[in-house]
Every structure is written in C-alpha cells, then in structure tokens.
Design a protein that fits this description.
mainly beta; 16-stranded antiparallel barrel; 8% helix
Length: 374
C-alpha cells in the first residue's frame, strides 16, 4: 500500500489537500520448486489506484505531478504477468508476457513524491508511448550477463494506446489497435569500487519506436502549423536515449552495505521532431541509516529540470500563445521507518515556473508519502 497526501501552501488557484493511493497485490512463483522447471519463475501483480490529483484540484499547472502515484486511470490493472527463464548458469535471462517497461529499462526507485525524481525517467517525458508502472504491455526481454558486473539487454514492446483504457484492464487481453513496436536497449555496469566495495549502478540506454506521430512544429507543407493551422506533418519513428548513474559514496556501517550515502544523476533526451518535452535532468542524494540509532531511516534531496522542446516554444511564439521554457523542481524528504515494513516520508516540494511558464506562480507543496509492505 502506498499513499501520498499533499497540500499546496503556495501556487495554484486555491489551497487544497489532495490524497491518492495505490494497492498492489503480487505473487512470485518459483517454478523450479513447483513444477521442476529449472531456473524458471512466474510473476503476477495487480494494482488498484484511487484518489485525486492535487495538480488538477488546485490548478497547479505543473509538467510533472507532485503525487507520482496518481494517474493512468484510477482502476484495477494487470501490472505484471510474465514468465522468466534463465539459461547457461543464469548468464542468459529471457522474460516474456505482460511487462512494465520501467521495471526492465532505466529502473529507479520511487522514494520521492514528485514525479521528476521517481521511476523510469523516459516515461516522464514521453509517457504517451513509454508506459511506466502500473501499465503493462505485451513484450519480451533478453538480458545477457557479459561479465560479472556488466550486462546488456534488449526488448520488444507492443505500442498500443488501448493498454491505457480502463475497460478490462485487469485481464490479460490482446486488444486491437497496435501502432507499432518499441525496441529499447540498455548497457549496464554494476561495479563495487574501492576497498569498501561501494556499490554503483551505471546505465546507458536508447530506444526506437516504430510508430508514426505528429511533428510538434511543421505542417504537411513543412511550414509552421501554428501559423497555417494545417494538419501536422506525420513522422515515422520516435527515439531517444538516457543515462542513469547511481553510486554509493560513503558507508556508515562496515557490516551493513545498505547504510550509506548514494548520489544519483538521471538524464533523458527524446527526439525533437515529435516530443513536446524533449529532455529531463535530475540529480540528488539518498542517505540511508545516517544515524546509528535509526539504521533504516532515510534522507533524500533532489533537484531537476524538465525542458519543453524549443520547437514547441517557437510555435507558441508565432501564435501569440504563452511560451513554455523549463520547469524546475526540488524535493526534500525524511524517511522514518515507523515499524518494520512501514515507512513514512514527509516531504517538502518546490516547483519554479510550473508548466515551463514564467508567468505561473511558483508551487510549494508539503506532503506525506506512506508505504506499507504487508
């Protein structure tokens, strides 16, 4: 169970307390023990989201949600439904079924409440086809452990807007309406550096989507659509790349590798022909077990920028519309383990130029993220 409460003490049209939550029911099945299938696993996960978005309630106008757990239709969803098989002493890993793209590529924790710092970053800027949790897609993924700390993986995901629908979302259906295939690839390095064996996780990835999409600026005659009002030019293929760096810099307890200071940097860049948001950069730190008397508590701090494609901004300028630039976000939270499996994360968020519009009032949100693992 995860819940997120937020109150905008500044910004928006009025002050509101917003609440949203998510329930996840999951089961992992060891098929080696159950059916004598060596190195095989099956997983099923179903989610249910509830509540409302503070951004909508208070008209915050932000590009990124201040409650990351809200969205994708408040309904029951089939989030994971896959079979995983390992070969050659687990050096080759093959997975097939209904997969969540952000769990396989550019995966990152969701300890922060602002979406800028949560989960797989590409889904934050090209979410119309990179579907993060809780939406799953029919897909397959192959991962090769090249050497002990280096891996390479590639996947193929069906791109189908109907996976976002609420009707029969909990069933493993095969809806019509596919527009293409998404092919992501990722090279990862997970070293243990120095005499203290400080753990790191470095990822470089890219993707290509075979679907067609509208150009964000040009019309069918290669002129500015904002001026001519003609239909947008259709582009074939959408693409991008990402870099994700996570490194433990300090360790507070020689016997407990989880207690330490981790630094992270995420950067994602999408093609400027078809993406309204063309890049996002976030960096921050998470300190776990800073105090000996609170070995599982956390302290997190992050800052980030979400950039609106300058081609979109040029079109807005030509049409005398408000011009969007960049949105800047920062969040500070303290994670208090109130009980084993119960984590409370009170947080403070600041968003400058919401929506990338300099005329919008800056947003300040105080929030509380609660996670309970039953």
């Amino acid at each position: 169970y995860t819940s997120e409460v937020g109150y905008n003490i500044a910004g928006g049209s009025h002050h509101v307390v917003g609440y949203t939550d998510q329930l996840t029911f999951s089961g992992d099945f060891d098929l080696d023990r159950l059916l004598a299938l060596h190195d095989a696993e099956f997983k099923l996960a179903i989610t249910k989201r509830n509540g409302q978005d503070l951004g909508d309630q208070a008209d915050l106008g932000t590009l990124q949600q201040v409650q990351e757990v809200w969205g994708r239709g408040q309904t029951w969803r089939l989030t994971q439904f896959w079979y995983d098989q390992k070969y050659f002493s687990k050096r080759l890993d093959w997975k097939i079924g209904r997969l969540t793209m952000g769990d396989e590529f550019d995966d990152f924790s969701c300890k922060f409440q602002n979406l800028t710092f949560c989960g797989s970053q590409p889904g934050n800027i090209v979410g119309d086809y990179w579907f993060n949790w809780p939406v799953s897609q029919w897909a397959t993924r192959v991962k090769v452990q090249v050497v002990e700390d280096v891996s390479f993986q590639v996947g193929a995901y069906e791109i189908n807007p109907r996976f976002l629908e609420r009707h029969d979302a909990v069933l493993p259906t095969f809806p019509s309406g596919a527009t293409g295939a998404m092919v992501p690839a990722q090279l990862a390095w997970a070293p243990k550096l120095g005499k203290d064996k400080l753990e790191g996780n470095y990822k470089l990835g890219a993707w290509y989507n075979t679907s067609k999409a509208d150009d964000v600026f040009e019309d069918v005659n290669d002129d500015p659509a904002a001026v001519t009002s003609l239909p947008a030019k259709r582009r074939t293929g959408r693409y991008g790349l990402y870099v994700s760096l996570l490194q433990q810099e300090l360790r507070f307890d020689e016997k407990d590798s989880t207690r330490g200071l981790d630094l992270f940097l995420h950067a994602t860049f999408a093609d400027r022909r078809t993406s309204t948001l063309d890049n996002q950069i976030a960096l921050g730190l998470i300190s776990t077990g800073t105090f000996d008397f609170r070995p599982k508590d956390e302290l997190g701090l992050a800052i980030g920028r979400t950039h609106v494609n300058s081609r979109v901004a040029h079109g807005e300028r030509l049409s005398d519309s408000p011009v969007q630039y960049s949105e800047y976000a920062a969040e500070l939270y303290y994670g208090l383990e109130a009980y084993d499996g119960v984590m409370l994360r009170p947080n403070f968020q600041y968003v400058r130029d919401p929506g990338g519009l300099k005329r919008n009032k800056d947003v300040v949100v105080v929030g509380l993220k609660t996670s309970i693992d039953f």
